[in-house]
Amino acid sequence: MTHEDLLDRYAQLIVRSGVGVAPGQELLMTAPVDAIPLVRRIIEHAYKAGATLVTTLYGDDAATLARFKYAPDKSFDAASGWLFDGMANAFRAGAARLAIIGEDPALLSGQDPAKVTRANRARSRAYRPALELITSHAINWCVASAATPAWARSVFPDLSADAALDRLWRAIFACSRADKADPVQAWVEHSRNLRQRTDFLNARRYKALKYRGPGTDLVLGLVEGHIWKGGASTAKNGITCNPNIPSEEVFTMPHKDRVDGILSSTKPLSYQGTFIEGIKVHFEAGRIVESHADKGADIFATMIATDEGAARLGEVALVPHSSPISASGIVFNNTLFDENAASHIAVGQSYADTMANGGTMSAEERAAAGANSSLIHVDWMIGSSGLNVDGVLSDGKTESLMRKGEWAA
Amino acid sequence: MTHEDLLDRYAQLIVRSGVGVAPGQELLMTAPVDAIPLVRRIIEHAYKAGATLVTTLYGDDAATLARFKYAPDKSFDAASGWLFDGMANAFRAGAARLAIIGEDPALLSGQDPAKVTRANRARSRAYRPALELITSHAINWCVASAATPAWARSVFPDLSADAALDRLWRAIFACSRADKADPVQAWVEHSRNLRQRTDFLNARRYKALKYRGPGTDLVLGLVEGHIWKGGASTAKNGITCNPNIPSEEVFTMPHKDRVDGILSSTKPLSYQGTFIEGIKVHFEAGRIVESHADKGADIFATMIATDEGAARLGEVALVPHSSPISASGIVFNNTLFDENAASHIAVGQSYADTMANGGTMSAEERAAAGANSSLIHVDWMIGSSGLNVDGVLSDGKTESLMRKGEWAA
Lengths: 409, 409
Hints:
The structure is a homodimer.
Chain A: H1 3-19, E1 26-32, H2 36-48, E2 53-59, H3 61-70, H4 81-92, E3 96-101, H5 113-135, E4 141-145, H6 149-155, H7 161-175, H8 183-204, E5 208-213, E6 216-222, E7 233-234, E8 240-241, E9 250-252, E10 254-264, E11 269-271, E12 274-276, E13 280-284, E14 287-292, H9 297-303, E15 313-318, H10 324-327, H11 335-338, E16 344-348, H12 363-368, E17 377-381, E18 388-392, E19 398-403, E20 406-407
Parallel strand pairs in A: 1-2, 1-3, 3-4
Antiparallel strand pairs in A: 5-6, 5-18, 6-10, 7-8, 9-15, 10-13, 11-12, 13-14, 15-16, 16-17, 18-19, 19-20
Helix pairs in contact in A: 1-2, 1-8, 4-5, 5-9, 6-7
């Protein structure tokens, strides 16, 4: 198949299996300007699927960089609240959400970390009302990716620009199953497999998970009534979507006050334009009380100081080390991919729909039940071929869940 | 000078003389994706001028076309109100407005005119709150242009794609004075010249203008206390801007009920993706009671039927036939240029600041004084080397204003 054929199948997959655009629904897409060829195909497929209106908000790494280079100091406490509020209003009015990502993972690595943190904080605050509609799964949504020159360069620094871009596109198509004979059907089957896994885990009703591995020795409590999710899920608006393309994880809600021990990252984390590597944190009663990073320690420290919930867990996810993404051997420098190559956790905002009745509880009720709340939600990878995970049953007995990074149960 | 040098000077001119971006001000820009190289330079200059945040909303002709080709019928009554409301909120919070235009003038010429009209109407309604903040000059704003392949092809159909684009850019730079030694200073002088003209016209206090020319025989009443404007103007936020780059016109407010006679267009009008040519209309008591167009008659008829004010005048502008834009001999198929090559009128919304106290009156008071109100504001060209214009003084005496398209007074 030509690149154009694959791109078209990928666009169709994103519209149908990813967002699940419904006839009569509006679609709000964000994308980098380098993704225009993909975006145009997505727009075409969205209208063919019955979308009434597709609005694309383009981002541009060059514009972001110009801000850091030339804007006055007060810029870094500003955010376009009018736009984020508008997005929240669109979601409230029934719009679906699609984020195409492909930013340069190292875009802001040369910039003042204090400014990066301030800008992120201002943006997170302004985005919160819109983000809450996504994390509570009020609407169908999807995050997918587009290969861009800067991202490709960061993943394949030894290849020529053209070869790197081509290689990254091929990896995206493969990891997303867009190169299968029938990608939409492939996702139906994939989702069914993930569903078997979540059904099993939901039936076990573990009260905690125990992690042991290089640099990791942790007991991670789960909220009562936690729900394991993975693959396709149905939003409150009744529409089924696959929120991440690709996706290999099953995930649920940790208890924000019941995490104890040490945890080490196993892959670099690209956080809003800078790399954070070699993270090692110490949890007590759910909170990170001590943190270290070999690289980007300042950014990491300020990130988990964003608010009270930024130093507590909002998500825990299990991914076998043999996942297709991990098997590709590529470190993507992008959480959407790397989190699906390894078991991971996320600090910050929890997903209300990973707890029984979470979607109908008040924020206070959710917090009392152990659900974490924050302006941020940042995943980082802790899985490896050296990781063992046990499930702790309600009577305190444990059983093997993962051994050497693979499912044991 | 290289193209890159000129582009940079043009970007700086737009930021400084066009929008007049103030330190600490947010900038909201719309632009076609084909204008990215210009947009990036504008962003850089805006931050250097002290902008706190620049947000660009990109449009894409290909996305517009995909909607007309593939969207379900109900799409054409939809508009992204959440986005337009967000823009209005940005303006209320103090943001400046910059529109970079460069769309394909004939983009929608092959599409169903009924759908074009419905889509335009839905968009106009949704955009109205934001547009009112612009027409009332609550904020500093500017419309400028970028050469794009499709626009260049329409203007220079006989040239190669590259040559057409290059030729259009050079015409834009020349008409915008971006190729002068000091473009910002050139605009100060240009504005001074236009100010002398408006000072003269304001002192005359004409009660009407009389037009005679090929296909035109019209008496056009002006509102009492009308104000002639042109060149730089100061918004209610205290910031001075040049709302159009280029701009050669002086303009004021017609009385919505006092226009009688016939009027013919002298250049093609590109209205939201279709061409309307050979317009001939008959006014009675301010209202178009009969209309004809050689081409695009349906679109024209539905345009002036948008609402009550769409068939009445909101603006009258005088431009000498020897203006630099007219002298270029190029028909730009774009109102921003063509309206500055010829005297013109606009049906639809009036500019509140072209009437004494218009900005502080209520909508009812403005209407009672003769100010027109509409969802649309569409300029079309009536000037030519055959046009004579007289000013009618309060005592009924007339004096020559323009003869054979040139200033006579």
